[in-house]
Amino acid sequence: MRHHMRQTAICLLLAAVTGIHAQQVNDNNTPLHLMKPAYRLPYGIPKADEVKQTIDRVLNYITEETPAVVINSKTGKTVDRLKDIDEFSQLKQGGFRLTSYEWGVTYSGVLAAYEATGDPTYRDYVYTRHRLLADIAPWFQKIYQKGKKIDGNVRRVIDPHALDDAGAVCASMIKARLKDATLPVDALIKNYADYIMNKEYRLADGTFARLRPQKNTVWLDDMFMGIPALAYMGKYTGEQRYYDEAARQVMQFASRMFVPEKGLFRHGWVEDMQPHPAFHWGRANGWAILTLCEVLDVLPDNHPQRTDIMNLLRAHATALASLQHHDGAWHQLLDRADTYLETSATAIYTYCLAHAINQGWLDAKAFGPVALQGWHATAAAVNERGQVENVCVGTGMGFDSSFYAYRPVHVMAAHGYGPVIWAGAEIIRLLKLQHPKLNDSAVMFYDQEVPTQQPIFNYDGSIRF
Questions:
Q1: Fewer CB within 10 Å of terminal CB in the chain, N or C?
Q2: In angstroms, rounded to a whole number, what is the distance separating the alpha carbons of residues 41 and 373?
Q3: Is this structure's pTM higher than 0.90?
Q4: pLDDT for the residue numbered 452
Q5: Quick one: pLDDT at residue 465?
């Protein structure tokens, strides 16, 4: 009854405000603070079911675009029996590649959505594709060992040539295997981990590196492409050496790439470059903070580097929060407001900030509103088909702002799909675990559930509840 009276009073008040047209509106006759802000995107606390509807739309789209089928490239017919796999067999081509690092991210995001929602459709999406890769790998391996060319999407599974081939998919398979011991992915995990641990090119001190675009270049992307898989190998095997290597890599990347005065990571570092420029590309900084979250999820509490990694996460999160655009997204070059707002980075930051809050690493009061507005911007980039818009295409490394500022965007850029689902999953968890409320029209997070008290303003400007 009291709630009904409160709502009635608000309605009468708003009617009176809108009815003031014969006299001048001023601070005495109108509660101007009740005027509706001209937000360009939604503002406030989303509903969990609406978040799920958004990520459901994305899942439905990528399910259609990534068939889990092997076909014969000459006949176009489905290969139904494993023994019929030959040199002409290949994964059926859809809009995206089942074995790329972008899809490793997607598998992890979809698994997180299963955990957050309990919807088995998400679990089945991942398990079906992981099982397919595990089932076909030995058969393609036999053909490959005979010196015959095989489907490149399968080759990167059985013979990785780069961290891009190995790390993200490996981490997703470990997560799935830890949940379901019946998944036959152990051989693939072992193969991926062997490449990361023993075969990837490194600097003299052991830091993951590449020979392009300059000799001995460290790519920020490779934090995510290599380190989380090592950390999860620690959990998967119980072997301390994996945890230690993951932590060592984090700190060695940070020593070269983190710019303390800005709280951001540079995209690339070249061993013999002096002075060294720093371009703070959005998605690469996403890979960095995502790596920190992934490592902290499994690194033992007593590990000697855990505190340093936690402090790095908090410093990075603080800087990122300060650079969020007022519509909720982040810029392609984080510290350049004249560059476009980009979705994949926005989704990754949304996930990481929400996850760090839910894990107790960040203060919900300070970072919760940032995460929610990040979700509003992320959701706004999902169109009716479930495609993710405003995603920067694959990007190499540059040392001038023009290179980054003019990178194209495209709905078929695979980098956006996993982060959007991952972000939505964590926002659903945030809404379950935390206590956001609107207070005087602003999003606030509280330490416990509090009653919603929306003020009612009298015509004379006095307040009652």
A1: N
A2: 9
A3: yes
A4: 60
A5: 46
